[in-house]
Amino acid sequence: MKILVTGAAGFIGFHVSKRLLDRGDEVIGLDNLNDYYDVRLKEARLAQLTPRTKFRFMKMELSDRVAMAEMFRTERPQRVVHLAAQPGVRYSIQNPHAYIDSNLVGFINILEGCRHQEVQHLVYASSSSVYGANTTMPFSIHQNVDHPLSLYAATKKANELMAHTYSHLYHLPTTGLRFFTVYGPWGRPDMALYLFTKAILEGKPIDLFNEGQMRRDFTYVDDIVEGVVRVTDRVTTPNPEWDSNNPDPGTSQSPYRIYNIGNNNPVELLHLIDCLEKNLGKVTTKNLLPMQPGDVPATYADIDDLVRDCNFKPATSIEEGVKKFVTWYRGYHSC
């Protein structure tokens, strides 16, 4: 199988690319290597992939309409795993245009490429942030998600709507994956686990928003990758039971699906820090701060549909996952 993976130098994209290569697929990795965080980490990830004979890297901007169209015409991927995006809830408040360029303009270029080259299946990253103002737990794909609390979340919701349109008009099979707080080796430096680890090792206090009462459905990256690969292999088909009088947001009469991929076990941030302190052998000072704009107090994934359709349920405990992350962190940073 020839698979295009966008964001191949990113956290999840790197791990997905590696997994696909390990099973024998040909991977075209695309990334713009922007400086949202340390480019050296992205280059180090790529250095793990580029020696592989079935991997080819292309540096490209998703928003470059001409270059993207030419790439699709030249490469003709059979399936696409679209993981490239401008991430970050708080950064979307500071730099909204970056999200429009990457997450909206870039996504329409992906859809157009898939449409014209008759790609078998487009799998793309959505986010748990689309649940926004929802408070009913666990979050279900069958809930309405029309009240995002950040521009980042709004762009991810928009991606789901755009994908449905292409599934309806052009019969393009699309599947959106709402990821829940992914963590693990080779993770992003702007994410909480990385920031906390760095601060604790440096003897600096850590900031805890919502007075430390945040709860997140932390999901280990290997579980995310397993879910992505299983979903990619299961090409979406229309739901014959979909009812236009009672429309289900998670499925469609078109070849369109949405899945949550989360650990199905929300963890208090204070417990995460406790796990970190035990693995690092150091105790930290905690600054308890109010809620940040755009944040939500808790996330919790309903994964019943993923379990039923793909026979998969994430199973890595926070204790095991944090231990593996700390081992990687110490090795990568030689500390």
Q: List the helices and strands in order.
A: EHEHEHEHHEHEEHEEEHEEHEHH
- Count of beta strands: 13
**Strand order across the largest sheet:** 3-2-1-4-5-6-11
Task: Provide the helix percentage.
Answer: 40-55%
Which residues form runs of ≥5 with pLDDT under 50? none
Overall description:
By secondary structure, the chain is an alpha/beta fold. The protein is 41% helix and 16% strand. It has helices spanning 11-22, 39-49, 65-75, 89-94, 96-116, 151-170, 192-201, 221-233, 269-280, 304-310, 318-333, and strands at 2-6, 26-31, 55-59, 79-82, 121-127, 174-179, 182-183, 206-208, 215-216, 219-220, 256-261, 267-268, 286-288. The strands form 4 sheets. A 7-stranded parallel β-sheet has the order 3-2-1-4-5-6-11, with helices on both faces. A two-stranded parallel sheet has the order 7-10. A two-stranded parallel sheet has the order 8-13. Helix 7 crosses helix 9 (269-280). The longest helix is centred in the N-terminal third of the chain and has 21 residues, at 96-116. It is globular, with a radius of gyration of 19 Å. The model has no long low-confidence stretch (mean pLDDT 95).
